[in-house]
Structure formats: structure tokens, C-alpha cells
Amino acid sequence: MPAGADAMSSAEKLDPKPAAALSLAALSGIPLVKAGDNVADLIVAGLSASGLALQPGDVIAIAQKIVSKAEGRTIDLRGVTPSPRALALAEEVDKDPRLVELILTESTEVVRHRKGVLVVAHRNGTVLANAGIDASNVGGGDESVLLLPQDCDRSCRDIRTRLAVRTGIEVGVLIIDSLGRAWRNGTVGAALGAAGLPALLDLRGKPDLFGRTLKSTQVGVADEIAAAASLLMGQADEGTPVVLVRGLELPEREGSAAELIRARENDLFR
In sequence order, which residues have a C-beta less than 8 Å from that of residue 64 and are 6 or more positions away? Predict the structure, then answer.
């Protein structure tokens, strides 16, 4: 039998399907966001400026920073008094004690720390460096830092509802940020909040191409979308914090980024 005949015969049995396609568009015209801004209104304006209109099945990926800014999560470090615990930990990790105080306030557990590195479990369950607190692209002077939204899933639900009111179209909404990963170098876009789409697809019990039952396959679909959108958002001065994702075929359900949080007892790194 010629080499590859088995694979060819299997392929011949598959029903032909039209080519799948996914499109991503970074919206133009999104201004610098300030506290009190309505993010949904900014998205609608960005869609108009980009010559786009929402369609059922679309997903809107939003950079965490603009949601945090709109929600007034900018903190002036000059108003932060570090606790004794923060002072001691700051010396170990060589970070500003005031920043460490905010990190501890925003987290439930210090997971790992060493000089220059402070990894914690955020209140929302996500394990990440510095509780997601950042000073880049924040504005407000050198003493300003930005915290994550109080509840990213809730923020996604609110934005989704407002978009539906403004446009008459219900879409999926993600709040995303760039996170580091165990085992690998480099940051990758990840979902911190989700609404209107499943964040995790559980394929266990479904058959593969050859009829074998999948036993452990779970797909972090929200993170996959976030990683794709992050390529257009960029990490520096691109100024494109909202990306329209079109072409996905996802089950319709509410969903939340909380689905992506691994239970502590199953986390080999804690």
C-alpha cells in the first residue's frame, strides 16, 4: 500500500466543507479614555468611524486598560501608605512599597516572589504578575498606576447590554490583557472578562475524526480570541484598544472568564 494511503482514504471520507474564515478589525477613532466615559458609546463611535456595523455572532475584544480608566481605577501612589507586610515584601522583590501595598490589597495570595518578580492570585482568581497593576499607557504622571476593573465579567455584561440597546445586536464581549505563562516566555493576550459567549468549550465525550471519544479536551476559546485580537491591539503606542472579531461559530450561552480559572487543588504551580 502506498505511503499515506490510510490518511488519504480517511480524508476522502470527510464531507467537503466551505473554507473557514475569521476576520479581525481594529476600530479606529477610539479616543484616550477618562474616568466616567461610556465604553459602549466609544465602541459604537469607533464602529461608525471604521465603516463597520455589528452583526449577530460578532465578538468585541476590549483592552483592559480602557475599561479600568473608564471605571476610575487609576490610583496615585502618593496617596498610598504601605503596611509593614508590604514594606518587608517590597525589600525582597525590589519594588516600590506603595505598589506592593496595592498588589497585596488586590490579591488573595502571594504565589511566587523573588527579586523583580511578584506573582499573586488576583481577587478574580487569575494568577498574574503584580495583580495586573500597570503604569504603562496610564497617563496622569509618573506616580499613577492602573488597577484591573473591580469585576471584569460584570463589566463585560454591562458593555454587552449597552451595545445591544444602542445597536439592536447582541454580541460577545471580552476584556483582555497580556499575561505571562508558566512554561513559556513572552506574554500572550488572555481574557479577564467575558459575556455572551463561552469562555471554555468542553469537548470531553465528543468523537474525534476517527470516532474515538475525547477524554480531556477543553478549549480556552476566550483566550484564543484574546490572543488573536492582541496582535492588532499591540503593546505600545498603537492606540487600537478595541477589535471586532467576525466569523466565529460558537454556542450561544452567557459564559464568563471565571470558567478559565483552574481550581487551586488542580494547579500544579501552587
Answer: 132, 148, 149, 152, 175, 176, 177, 192
